[in-house]
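B., you asked whether I could sanity-check this one before it goes into the benchmark set. Here's the sequence:
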Amino acid sequence: MSDLRSNVEGLLAAGNHRAARAALAAAVLTKPTTATCHVVADKLSQIDPVDAGLTPVKVAYLTNYTVDPLLPLLAARALPSGLKVTTYAPGFDLWMQELVEPSSGLRQFNPEVVIVDLLPEQVAQDLTTRFLALGREGVEQAVNAAVSVIENGIGALRQWSKARLLVSALPRPLGPSLGIIDAIPSGQKAAFASINERLRDLCQSAGGHLVDTDRLVAEVGWSGWRDYRMWSIARMPYGNAAMHRLADEHVRYLRALMGRGRKVLVLDLDDTLWGGVLGERGEHAIDLGGTHPGSGFVDFQHAIAELRRRGVILALNSSNDVDEVLGVMRRHEAMVLRPEDFSAMRVNWQDKAENMVALADELNLGLDSFVFIDNSDTECARLRDALPEVLTCQLTGDPSGYGPWLRQSGLFDSLGYSDEDRQRGEMYRDEVKREQHRQSIGSLDEFLESLQMELTAEHVGDATVARAADLTQRTNQFNMTTERRTADEIRGWREARDRVALVFSLKDRFGAQGIIAFAAMQISGGRAVITDLLVSCRVLKRHVEDAILAVLTEHAAARGAEQIVARVRPTKRNAPFIDFYPSRGFSASDDAAPASDPTLQLFTRRGRMPRPKHIAIQATEAPLHS
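And here's what the prediction gave me:
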């Protein structure tokens, strides 16, 4: 630990915050012990998030136990995901008091994410300790009382905060009162299931998410989950393994909520997708098949294929002969993954860090959306040092554990799943065809005209609201405000007479690209404010964003609004497109940004924007509300 401290202190003294971030993140990835996490959390507080390329996020824990030991674990484990977490926790069991008190530390902290994690012994004591004394009516009353406690807390929070919300489900007790027959409809298990089902509905209506605590307990085991001695001494209920797993689960949600979800899985080949070095063993002697160790690599490929079906983009980055690799992938009967499953490849003898940059350019995605998996400690160290934005994971141990590790890693967790996710791999392969076509065309105008693009705009509906919310969570580059929306939040706009929320689909001669953009406006008094405008990076540089802006100005005009106001919140990640509005005839607005959001910039113009001639637009003609 002293070496890590001195190394990071030297980097910070030299002003190299990016390298300090890389060193701390590597420490968490390679040795995620409690001691490591404490050192990382301590040094992380000295790192400038802008210089280091980190997204700051303020997280508050509302608990009825001593949560302090969990806080540095969360901060450290969030770092490899590009997050700089600052935490706040009220004093012991003072969470409700701080929610309602106007001058509380919680309100002054003004969290972006609130995590409610309450122990059942406190919030549902009768159900936990004297279940059989309650009777049927008493159980129902105790269930209602437990739900009411959390419901009242969420209600108090929503009086003053729009923070993203996580609520832990109440785990069923170890050693139920009815023993082996507890699975009956009137048992403890059913009572806690009833609480959690109502909490799920409550979270949905409050724009939150329910954390599946029973799944976490099953992974860790109850003996590792609870530390009864520490609960008795210090009111800290969790064992060490439980605290790390709980912190990791919360990081998974934070990644998705803050737009830090990973999108691309880049893989090495030798001793990663198969056992052995292909160039040394040859196609028929690599370990890949139905017996150990080859069966482990087959299972690993199945886990990767399932991620692809989930919407993860696959790519290769390997030091190998490309013809030999393609031969194995096409002919080997045990191969699960085939060449067509990969959207991009760099199979050559060049530096893997350089290859990674080239892959990002080809896919038009930021490096911070990449995960790289390799078995070589040398290659992994090189990638972590050169490209800390990439989450680099090293395979270690027996290959039979590779698949289970990947399935449980949560590296690509998101808050939604749609048809676009299922088809994403094919869409990116179509992008390769478009790029090849572009290189065969003389001019950009000719290329754009030859694509035969058709853009369809429609009001957000039940079938598209999940995709609209997913776009706000995933899109970072062309996202004018980087505000993350929930499906319920967007769904509520459909009922508001002053709101317009649209999704945009695109297709061209190479195929359909699905829903590629979401935009929303608030219109009143002859003034339309573009609150949200975000476009998938797959379709940029084709003037699709101009076609979308034209549709928005047409909708504004149809609602009697001549003045268009656009909102921009500059970040490091949307910096390449920060001049979009000024370059389209918008000028800086005289209106001041709200005091609560001083980074917000406002731009304005009057009248409609012209439609790009090379894009055919089918737009909803009438406003949703007249």
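One thing to flag: The two ends are 65 Å apart (CA to CA). Otherwise nothing jumped out at me.
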